[in-house]
Write the structure tokens for this entry.
Amino acid sequence: MAARPRFTSRATVLVLVLCSLVAILAYPTRQFISQRAEISAQRAKADHARQQVEQLRREKARWQDPEYVKAQARARLHYAVPGETPYIAVDPAGPASARTSSSAGGAASAPNAAPGSAAGQAKAAKPWYASIWDSVDAADTAAAAPATPLPLPPSPVGDTSPHDH
């Protein structure tokens, strides 16, 4: 008996046709899958936007209620009804104590000093350009310490010097 070849010409043609079909359909299938993922992401975005719209509608409806408006005016703007005496609690130590307690070391440095302290008065006595020059010198000598930005000086009202705007 003669040995049959392992692959006949028909089997070879069939394998070639199947491989070409897979190659032809691979790109459209990948596009289809990526478009389905994009559609689902857009639907999720639309659902999130609808939820935000509903939340804003509820908030708008609350603002239509005069009692809610009064409560917000009292809480946010410290308004009081005629005949009431409003009280506001103020920290007697001032805003410097809040900065001091929130700093990592617990002690205020010269840039964070209160205006009433000696460092704050010395800083206020200097002209603005001296403060800028001091900060340039400090930046030149400081190796690893991050410098805190100085506030910009107020511009003169009648300044007629040319500026780049």
Confidence is low (pLDDT under 50) at residues 102-113. The chain is about 60% helix and 0% strand. The longest helix spans residues 9-63. The two ends are 98 Å apart (CA to CA).
